[in-house]
Write a structure and sequence with these properties.
The protein is mainly α and 131 residues long. 45% of the residues lie in helices and 6% in strands. Helix 6 (106-110) links the parallel strand 3 and strand 4 (117-118). Helix 3 packs across helix 5. The longest helix is centred in the middle third of the chain and has 13 residues, at 44-56. The relative contact order is 0.15.
Length: 131
């Protein structure tokens, strides 16, 4: 699916994955096509929309949660922005926790932009994969 472009990720996720010299990094390098991790520098306007949304939620989220979500090294806000720019569905195992104040979960960031999110099993179902 990665080779055909049916599933992609972003450079910010690659940075998180490649921080450690481990089997996951080795697998990614050996298995994924070079264009699997998409460049996020071209989605800055939509990233700005996600940043504005997060800032507007300062009445709900603790400052540390906002800081973490908007950290340059954190991929979540960029994933949402990429999904906005490219009309994608995000694959995540995070569950919605709208009352949580100490962390912005991907489902909460998806909601105001009508971005769909699914877990891995649902992704395979939607893609028609069978095992």
């Amino acid at each position: 699916m990665a080779a055909s472009g049916r599933i992609v990720s972003i450079d910010k996720v690659r940075s998180e994955l490649y921080k450690h010299e481990d089997d996951l990094k080795a697998w990614c390098i050996a298995t994924l096509p070079p264009d699997f991790f998409k460049d996020t520098s071209i989605i800055l306007p939509d990233y700005g929309r996600v940043v504005s949304w997060a800032a507007s939620m300062s009445h709900h989220y603790l400052p540390r949660a906002l800081q973490e979500f908007l950290s340059a090294d954190e991929a979540d806000a960029w994933l949402v922005a990429y999904a906005i720019s490219n009309n994608c569905t995000i694959v995540t195992h995070e569950l919605s926790q709208p009352d949580r104040r100490n962390k912005i979960k991907i489902p909460e960031a998806c909601a105001p932009f009508n971005i769909q999110y699914v877990n891995t099993i649902e992704m395979f179902r939607r893609l028609g994969e069978r095992f």
